[in-house]
């Protein structure tokens, strides 16, 4: 077996099981006698649970925040620092290293792993071809429980065909949106304790606009999203108008949320529900996960148009949990879009997706952008070549205060 190997996966694989098969030596027999460390979201979740249940704060972040109160990228950096600060083991298993990491963290990680690879064996798990580390000697896929060499297939990337042929389903109610701003942030600042996170942010989002929100790890992207979605208590003090309602004027969180469709790759974490695929989509009308009241005939009809668009009509009565990771994500986007919300928020949506499903996903997002009047805020560190936002709002951290924002 070559020294450093990558396992290139589709997102259909059961990751937890795969990690177990690798570390037990079932998939790579030479690992049976060796000791390794694991860099994976699964390890990270274990440390977060240790913090919450047992008050053990073993993994230190650069901000001294707990892992729970850290941004996604800060958590990943902290885990890597933690693993690399320990005495070297025989191998390191790296699972989807780049998700959530900003450009500079990605280059630093590359340098550190290159150095590490001189002393220890690296086993990488990747769902995107371009993530495969340069020093990897051989790339495998998993076929019928065994590793199979795939290097040649990787070099010839096939052009994907168009996936969505039907038009986007029409909304239940045609909103007269005009061109009034949906979102207005005026000199908005957020502090946690003494620490400034964002400073004097001014941002106006109008109907139908397609924005990408970018900025390095910890610059405040999720903080801004949580202000817009009404989930951040700091929003009460902020000068914001959300969907025509001035913040702090007696509005309920529901008044805000009914205008937003939200999708984040995090939504699938620990998702164990047994709802059918159809009821998952219908539940988007009711802002619930799962159905707790009867949908109307027209809601069922529109949900079925979405199922047709996704090519899932014939499997609509199957359990959502039966779907692959990529298809689950498409269903959750349809769920977020079924009510044609004025605003769709996509937070790191392609994390965990494989190459094929990222392409399909990008096609769906572009279709929503071009065929509906829904505005989109898309947050991602990855440059997805097929996703084409019109405008970029960039956060730049300021060493003496919080991040400032500018339109590019
Ligand atoms: N509840 C909290 N208490 C203290 N600090 C917090 C809390 N929530 C977030 N932070 C800090 O606020 C900063 C901004 O976090 P945020 O999640 O908004 O960043 P981000 O730009 O989304 O980062 P990433 O790209 O890594 O996801 C981070 O440094 C984070 O540690």
TrEMBL record:
It holds the Pfam family ABC_tran. Keywords: ATP-binding, Nucleotide-binding, Transport. It comes from the Bacteria. Transmembrane segments: none annotated. One of its GO terms (molecular function) is ATPase-coupled transmembrane transporter activity. Residues 183-405 form the ABC transporter domain. One of its GO terms (cellular component) is ATP-binding cassette (ABC) transporter complex. This is ABC transporter domain-containing protein. It comes from Algibacter mikhailovii.
């Amino acid at each position: 077996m070559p020294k450093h190997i990558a396992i290139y996966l589709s997102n259909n694989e059961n990751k937890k099981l795969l990690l177990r098969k690798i570390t037990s030596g079932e998939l790579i027999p030479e690992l049976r006698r060796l000791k390794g460390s694991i860099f994976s979201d699964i390890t990270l979740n274990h440390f977060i649970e240790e913090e919450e249940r047992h008050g053990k704060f073993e993994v230190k972040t650069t901000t001294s925040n707990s892992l729970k109160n850290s941004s996604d990228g800060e958590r990943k950096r902290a885990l890597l620092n933690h693993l690399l600060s320990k005495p070297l083991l025989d191998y390191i298993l790296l699972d989807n290293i780049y998700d959530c990491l900003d450009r500079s963290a990605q280059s630093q990680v590359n340098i550190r792993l290159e150095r590490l690879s001189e002393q220890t064996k690296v086993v990488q798990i990747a769902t995107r071809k371009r993530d495969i580390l340069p020093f990897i000697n051989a790339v495998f896929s998993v076929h019928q429980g065994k590793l199979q060499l795939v290097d040649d297939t990787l070099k010839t990337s096939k052009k994907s065909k168009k996936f969505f042929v039907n038009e986007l389903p029409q909304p239940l109610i045609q909103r007269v949106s005009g061109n009034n701003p949906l979102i207005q942030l005026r000199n908005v600042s957020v502090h946690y304790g003494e620490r400034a996170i964002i400073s004097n942010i001014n941002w106006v989002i109008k109907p139908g606009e397609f924005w990408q929100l970018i900025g390095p790890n910890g610059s405040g992207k999720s903080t801004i999203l949580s202000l817009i979605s009404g989930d951040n208590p700091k929003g009460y003090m902020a000068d914001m108008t959300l969907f025509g309602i001035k913040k702090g004027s007696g509005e309920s969180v529901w008044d805000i949320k009914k205008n937003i469709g939200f999708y984040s790759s995090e939504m699938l974490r620990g998702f164990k529900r047994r709802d059918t695929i159809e009821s998952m989509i219908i539940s988007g009308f009711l802002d619930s996960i799962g159905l707790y009241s009867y949908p109307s005939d027209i809601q069922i009809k529109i949900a079925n148009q979405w199922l047709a668009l996704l090519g899932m009509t014939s499997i609509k009565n199957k359990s959502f949990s039966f779907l692959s990771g990529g298809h689950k994500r498409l269903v959750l986007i349809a769920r977020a879009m079924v009510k044609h919300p004025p605003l769709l928020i996509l937070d790191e949506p392609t994390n965990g997706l494989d190459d094929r499903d990222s392409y399909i996903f990008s096609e769906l997002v572009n279709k929503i952008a071009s065929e509906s009047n829904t505005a989109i805020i898309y947050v991602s560190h990855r440059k997805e070549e097929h996703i084409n936002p019109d405008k970029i709002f960039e956060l730049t951290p300021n060493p003496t205060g919080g991040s400032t924002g500018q339109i590019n």
